[in-house]
Specification:
heteropentamer; A alpha/beta (255); B alpha/beta (297); C mainly alpha (234); B: 297 residues; alpha/beta; 4-stranded antiparallel sheet; 8 helices; 32% strand; globular; C: 234 residues; mainly alpha; binds adenosine-5'-triphosphate; binds magnesium ion
Chain lengths: 255, 297, 234, 297, 234
């Protein structure tokens, strides 16, 4: 059986944010229509996605954690990385904005203010979003556990956003999830910092040298498809009219 | 005073009326034996008096007051098939006393006495659910006796008890029960039990009271065939109507005393009982049995 | 082979987690026990008498109630969690209470999950007693409450099983705890939700370690049950 | 041939040896009554022969062959407290036949016959678990009879049955059982049952065979006091040792026939039974009872 | 107030989903049923005889086995899912089988969850029969197998409850299905995991609608149980 599987299906370890938006479903359908190859997207935090790659439990990854990705590439678990698309993180919080971050334009400064007042809700699930949050604390020179009433949900973006909404807390959310859920929460976008809050999504192939089990052929075809103009177009269009805003900006169109 | 009265009491089971008693009274401090064929409603009667069932109509009184489900229990019931709670025989005897708030020291005494009376002293520490049928029945009886209630309801209490124990109990029970001054209602199929323990006798057939009265009167003049049969009479067709012949009164050849009535006996079987012979046969279609003393032909 | 490491290291990991006296781990364990035991206790207080009533009572619509209880027994924790969430979320009817994402809310959700189980199974265990037993107790002079107590003693094995079923269901349940509790580190994170989190982080060994700890808890409670079973004929 | 044999059979319960039979044989096509006090091991004996229990030591044979748990069942057992499967009386009677692969048409006939013999025809469509104790016992007996096995084991089959039905059954059973040609082992506490149904008699006391033999022999010469007591004898202390007086042989004043022995009777109670009077009292400490005919003083 | 919309629209939504004949919804429903029924059936085939053996057998270490079964009854689906995952993931011992993220794998996981429940509760229901019943059947001439069959008929209510417990547990379970099945749209997404997904997308009404459908399934099965209960004394 497995020999046929080799050609007809592959396992994609993907970050939840890309998955929950529903983008992947659309792309995967087109890919199947095109090639007859079945993609099994396993939605987990970026951390777990990379971990699966390291164990050779997946054929390809879709993650948004450049620093971590770099480590795994260096370790040789991931190869043939391609920047797929990007959007940005939004710092959202209560309309009242007690910490007064709205007046800011610099994410680091804003985080510094949040740290003094809080409350802040963190993913705490080893996702790309979390590692970006941690990076920001670091740049702000704020030890994480000194942040005023910071809680970790250890869950996906949506669950975290619900918690933040309930506690009227600040949180960092990726644009896609935000556009998807903003109508369900009373929080408002307080800060957008294109530079510091850029959120890059990349796809990688699991290194067949280290992990012979990898289904190289279908995986490669999938990666190629993802960066193909057709797919990139889909990414650009995705959710525009339904959610009234662009969720992802394709990065491979130029190539 | 703790006489038991039933007034216009009816009771249904699975849609069928199984008890329908216009009026019935069990006198205080008296032992009444209830006789009746299987399914007559005897157990049902006891369950009603014990308050386990509510009559469909009518009401039941004890000592004139209507039966109450709350308030201290005034009856004790020993059903024919014994049920026990987990644990030893002792716990089973003790439980009822505890539930009736008898002080512990007294409880111990009562349990010991009741056990002695029923000859189960050496079973006290055995698991109650691991007894032979007769042992179980004796424990069941002891449990009721230990409660010393105003009204004690016994359902075939000696059916499974062996002859030796039975004879002992038949000798002691009347004394015990009189001493306790309890009103006793005893359901039984056994003639001897009925005679020894039943000062009064109630005959129940098909859920209705067929006959009721002092033992002597009923035995002198059984009002009908059923009653006579249940009391152990043999019914024979005489020239002038049926005659009820008291058990043992049937003799072969010139019997001693009594009004002589002649019958012809179709012998069907002769059982040799050693010193006696038991002759079974039919007279006018009715099966009878009589014993021949040793040297009879 | 990762899985070998995973499984083998998991045990070591479990010990490590426990012995290291890692404050967080112990906090999670105690929190898990506190919440689930609390929910089970409440479910018992409510469920056993109701189960008794269902088993012995002969009221109209009894079958219907039984049916509803049976259904409720199969109620998905996820759904229970979702409904509770909807009631306590800010925009919900009890939004003001601020109970959402607190242990109390989790106790409530787990209580809702456990109670039908306790009702159903205690009803079953009461019904499985010798049919004549209640009448016996009545005739011995037991009032309704003492009868309930004595019958419970007689059926204690079944009732314990019922409570066990409830406890086992809620302590091993993740859907409701996650939705209602929010899996907040340090306040509402319990073993099951913790397992999900560390799994999400790809820390399989730790996940299994938590799992083993969970089983250990279940087993200790079972030991109590077995101990009682020993005294069956006592 | 389907005689039942026990060879060096012992059996423990809760650590106690409750049965210890060196050698015992129940002849083929013969009715044997087993008498014994409560807890003697009678039911245990039946359960062993029925294959419900494995002897701790020794073995049991039917028709010479050792008892086998597999293979077609050769015994039918009616225990004293009846247990039923869910459903009607009919289903309960039919089940055993179905299990023994009796063809349906025959099953129907057998069920009808057995029901008739036990007088439960009108109960056939009632739920078996909703019967009165006597009704239940009759169904229990009918269920065993319907199986027409080689060996039929009856444990106090008539204990709860009313007098009328009982007399009828006592008349019919011997014929039925002989006709069926079955080997019958009957446990009973009732003298009449033992005499009417027991061609042979086995006396079991404390798990051991105390006496065994043809009815006549045992009744002529009860080997010991227990046996005599169980057979209904009254034991009296004569000048020259104990004398066992057969029931009914005790008469007041100049009795008819029989070796005359004189005793003095402490009368404790006189029950007026109408045509007769039942006198209970003690002779040399032993309680006895005797009936006085009408005109006696 | 979102929740009002949520709760009210949910019902309409549920109908809509069902009637719209939305292929995916129906696929999910049927898949859920297929997987859970299949797992329950297997659990029944394995669990009922084992439960019977536990209830009537008198072998050494019986208590221990009972204890283990009781523990297994409280085994968290999350852990079961994790262990199965570890065994069937590509780097695991059965990695080659390619079973992970397939319905078969979900059946296996749910089977592991349901079986202890079925064993435990069918043992209980067999034990709750009149103690003399097995002896009666033996003396009537029933061999071991027919005895098993007849006792099962006598205890059918309890056994059905046992199977129900198993079914209810697996159909409403999310942890294992998620980990082992991967919640793949079109192949391994079942109602519970679907609920999680749509909740993540903020489509609460849909989530509740799925929940209602889940309850409906549970209820229909319950109806069967209740129906049998009617024929109790038949
Ligand atoms: N389940 C049990 N566990 C332990 N001991 C038992 C059990 N059943 C019976 N016994 C004991 O075994 C002995 C024999 O019991 P058995 O039932 O054979 O007596 P029996 O002759 O039938 O008495 P009965 O005339 O009262 O029926 C008794 O001492 C009884 O207490
Ligand atoms: N649980 C029940 N459900 C339906 N009918 C019942 C139930 N118990 C008894 N009956 C019926 O009620 C009637 C009276 O029963 P009851 O037990 O009072 O008779 P009984 O006089 O005690 O007979 P026995 O001498 O056999 O004990 C019988 O016809 C019996 O079939
Ligand atoms: Mg009765
Ligand atoms: Mg016996």
């Amino acid at each position: 059986a497995s020999s046929t599987d080799e050609r007809t299906e592959l396992i994609l370890a993907t970050t939840t944010s890309a998955y929950e938006s529903g983008l992947l479903d659309t792309l995967i359908d087109q890919f199947r229509a095109l090639t007859g190859i079945d993609v099994k997207p396993i939605a987990v935090g970026s951390g777990a996605a990379l971990m699966m790659a390291q164990r050779g439990d997946a054929d390809a990854t879709l993650t948004h954690d450049p620093t971590a990705e770099a480590r795994y590439v260096a370790a040789g678990h991931l190869v043939e990385g391609r920047r797929l698309m990007h959007n940005d993180f939004v710092l959202v919080g209560p309309a009242a904005d007690p910490a007064g971050v709205a007046s800011n334009t610099d994410a680091v400064e804003a985080m510094r203010r949040v740290a003094t007042l809080g409350p802040f809700v963190s993913r705490g699930d080893g996702s790309g979003t979390e590692s970006r949050e941690l990076l920001l604390w670091q740049e702000a020179g704020v030890p994480v556990d000194s942040v005023k009433s910071r809680v970790e949900t250890g869950q996906g973006m949506s669950a975290t956003l619900y918690v933040a909404n309930d506690q009227q807390a600040y949180t960092l959310v990726d644009r896609a999830t935000w556009l998807t859920l903003r109508n369900r929460v009373d929080l408002v976008p307080l800060l957008e910092d294109g530079a510091r809050l850029r959120n890059d999504y990349s796809v990688h192939l699991v290194n067949p040298e280290l992990h012979p089990g990898t289904r190289v052929v279908p995986a490669r075809r999938f990666l190629e498809f993802m960066v193909s103009p057709a797919a990139q177009q889909v990414i650009a269009e995705f959710g525009r009219e339904r959610l009234g805003g662009q969720l992802f900006i394709p990065d491979a169109l130029g190539e | 005073m703790s006489d038991v009265g039933l007034h216009q009491v009816t009771f249904q089971r699975a849609g069928r009326t199984v008890l329908d008693v216009a009026s019935l009274r069990f006198p205080s401090r008296t032992m009444t034996a209830v006789l009746g064929p299987n399914g007559a409603g005897k157990t049902t009667l006891l369950r009603l008096v014990a308050g386990l069932e509510r009559p469909a109509s009518g009401h039941i009184t004890i000592g004139g007051e209507p039966l109450r489900r709350d308030g201290p229990p005034r009856t004790a019931l020993a059903l024919s098939d014994a049920v026990f709670v987990r644990g030893t025989v002792r716990r089973n005897l003790d439980l009822g006393l505890a539930l009736r708030d008898v002080p512990p020291p007294e409880r111990e005494i009562r349990v010991r006495d009741a056990a002695e009376e029923c000859g189960i002293t050496d079973l006290l520490d055995r698991p109650a659910r691991q007894l032979s049928s007769g042992e179980a029945q004796r424990v069941n009886l002891a449990r009721a006796l230990a409660l010393r209630p105003e009204v004690i309801l016994l359902d075939e209490p000696l059916a499974a008890v062996d002859r030796l124990t039975r004879r002992a109990l038949l000798d002691d029970l009347p004394r015990l029960l009189r001493a306790a001054g309890a009103t006793v209602i005893l359901v039984t199929h056994d003639r001897e039990e009925a005679f020894r323990l039943g000062e009064r006798i109630v005959v129940l057939v098909g859920g209705q009271v067929r006959a009721e009265g002092a033992r002597r009167d009923l035995l002198m003049e059984p009002p009908d065939a059923d009653t006579a049969g249940l009391l152990g009479f043999v019914l024979l067709e005489d020239a002038d109507g049926p005659v009820a012949v008291a058990p043992g009164e049937l003799r072969a050849g010139p019997g001693a005393g009594g009004p002589h009535v002649g019958f012809t006996l179709q012998v069907t079987d002769v059982l040799d009982l050693g010193r006696q012979r038991l002759v079974t046969g039919t007279i006018g279609g009715r099966s009878v049995e009589l014993t021949l003393p040793e040297k009879a032909p | 082979m990762h899985w070998v490491n995973d499984l083998t290291t998991a045990l070591g990991e479990a010990w490590h987690l426990l012995l290291s006296g890692d404050a967080e781990v112990w906090a999670i364990i105690l929190r898990t026990l506190a919440i689930s035991l609390c929910a089970t206790a409440l479910a018992m207080v409510v469920g056993v008498p109701l189960g008794y009533g269902l088993a012995r009572g002969r009221f109209p619509g009894r079958t219907l109630v039984l049916g509803m209880v049976n259904t409720a027994m199969g109620m998905p924790p996820v759904v229970v969690g979702l409904v509770v969430w909807l009631f306590f979320t800010r925009s919900g009817p009890f939004g003001g209470s601020g109970l959402l994402y607190t242990p109390q809310a989790m106790v409530l959700a787990q209580f809702l999950i456990a109670t039908p189980l306790v009702i159903g199974f205690s009803a079953a265990s009461i019904q499985s007693l010798p049919p004549a037993l209640p009448d016996l107790l009545t005739s011995l002079g037991a009032g309704p409450w003492r009868r309930l107590w004595l019958l419970s003693r007689e059926a204690r094995l079944g009732l314990l099983a019922a409570v066990m079923a409830g406890f086992g269901a809620v302590i091993s349940e993740v859907g409701a705890s996650m939705t209602v509790g929010g899996n907040l580190r340090g306040s509402t994170r319990v073993l099951t939700t913790a397992i999900v989190t560390v799994t999400g982080r790809g820390e399989m060994a730790t996940a299994i370690a938590y799992g083993l700890i969970l089983l250990a808890l279940a087993f200790t409670v079972t030991l109590i049950l077995t101990f009682v079973q020993q005294r069956r004929d006592a």
